[in-house]
Amino acid sequence: MRTLLAVVSCAVLALTGQACSTPGGGPAASVATAGAGGSAQGGGLGGEGLPDLQGGYVPAKVGAPPDPGPEQTFRIGPYDLLKIEVFQVAALSSEVRVDDKGFVMMPLIGAVQVGGLTPQEAEQAIAHKLGEQYLQNPQVRIFVSEYASQKVTVIGIVKKPGVFPVAGKTTLMQAIALAGGLDDVARKNEIVIFRKQPGGNVNAYVVDLAAIEEGRQPDPVIVADDRIVVSKSGAAVLSKAIGNVLTGWAMRAPF
User: Fold this and answer.
1) What pLDDT does residue 5 have?
2) Distances (CA, A) of 55 to 2, 44, 58, 155, 227
3) What pLDDT is attached to residue 234?
């Protein structure tokens, strides 16, 4: 099992082109695959023979992540820049940045909690406070000028790796375009998306970008805090895990 985990570590190092050694001391040119039906003794195995994926190892699935659905609608977060307009009341209209606790400061009504709300919900919250004492039937519109809280990370063999803001619905191809596109030696058929799950765990999804470009597979939607890792051509990304974890693959997450 130690050998397997060490080899998985090599896969992640390969994503950034770093050298890696196997337990025997030699360089690992590619990731080994455990034999079908293999088993391991001693530590490192959880119940039902599943690998212990603690310490940064996460289950991986070959295929696109599930569609996030309407529950992933953009919600205002800390440091987002909002343009708030109150219809026919220019003195109450302003461009303000959300503070680290999710509040914005408004003329007359002071601090208003908008963090965690959709722009439409924030409009209603501000209109309600204005209507309590100052205006009759106020009409409020909010435009997000800067999406500081919604970011995606793209690393590996791309032209401009980094952390990028995402505005509204963003797909994998669009996220890679934010990073300047793939380098010439990128492995297009094994793009890895690391995604945090509602319970705090992380899953990895290995996506074939070439198939997406050719229209054979849909372009998956990216959500805030996704990590996209592009490996180098000729470097294996995954190692076969002992047991059945999603599709039986495991790798180390770049968190």
Assistant:
1) 32
2) 13, 11, 9, 21, 18
3) 60
Specify the fold of 75-146: wza like fold (3.30.1950)
**Domain residue spans in the chain?**
2-70+150-252, 75-146
CA distance 114 to 95: 14
In the CATH hierarchy, which fold is given to the domain comprising 2-70+150-252?
Answer: Outer membrane lipoprotein wza fold like (3.10.560)
Among 238, 254, 224, 227, CA closest to 80:
224
pLDDT under 50 in the chain at which residues? Answer: 1-55, 236-250
Q: What's 139-187 look like in SS3?
A: CEEEEEEECCCCEEEEEECECCCEEEECCCCEEHHHHHHHCCCECCCEE
Alpha-carbon distance 255 to 253, whole Å?
A: 6
Structural tokens at position 72: 């992933």
